[in-house]
Structure formats: C-alpha cells, structure tokens
C-alpha cells in the first residue's frame, strides 16, 4: 500500500509519495474520476514496469470489513468449484 498526494489525474494518475518521488500509475477512467476528488490518499498499486492502480481512497478513511463468517461464505461461493476439482 502506498500513501501520497494526488498531483495530477490526466492523462495518467500521478501520486506524490512522502519521500518526494512521483509515482505515475495506469488507472481506469472510473478510478481517475474518483481520485480527482481526493487529495491525500491511500492506494493499492501493482508495482511492475507499468504500475497499475488496484484501488484508491481518502487517506485515513475507514473501510467497512464484513464479519469473518461473511468473508468465508463469499470465498467458498467464489472458489467452491475450483476447490471441488482440486479435492479430486
């Protein structure tokens, strides 16, 4: 996870990092639109030769986390077929 300040949101998303560097990331149009309304951010970025934004939110914003039972049920629904095949 990275933390920084939005520097520019067109045509690519640029985030100023606390160490003084700028990080340019590719993002979807929806992510760029969301980021344009933010200033200080927390973001998840896939670091590769072409860094890609996974998600972004206002720094310090609380994110609701579902209870463990709901998370487990979701994972089982999503992966049940693969798990069934692997068990064979």
Overview features:
elongated, 32% helix, 88 residues, 5-stranded antiparallel sheet, 33% strand
Account of the protein in words:
This protein is α+β, with helices and mostly antiparallel strands and about 90 residues long. The protein has one domain. The protein is built from two helices and five strands. The chain is elongated and about 50 Å long. The chain starts with a strand and ends with a helix.
How many strands, what sense, and barrel or not for the largest sheet? Answer: 5 strands, antiparallel
Gyration radius (Cα, Å) is: 17 Å
Q: Could you spell the SSE succession in H and E letters? A: EEEHEEH
**Strand content range:** 25-35%
Helix content: 25-40%
Mean of pLDDT: 87
Summarize the structure.
The chain is of the alpha+beta class and 88 residues long. The chain contains two helices and five strands; from the N terminus they run βββαββα.
Helices and strands in order:
Layout: E1 2-8, E2 13-16, E3 22-25, H1 29-36, E4 40-46, E5 52-58, H2 68-87
Antiparallel strand pairs: 1-2, 1-4, 2-3, 4-5
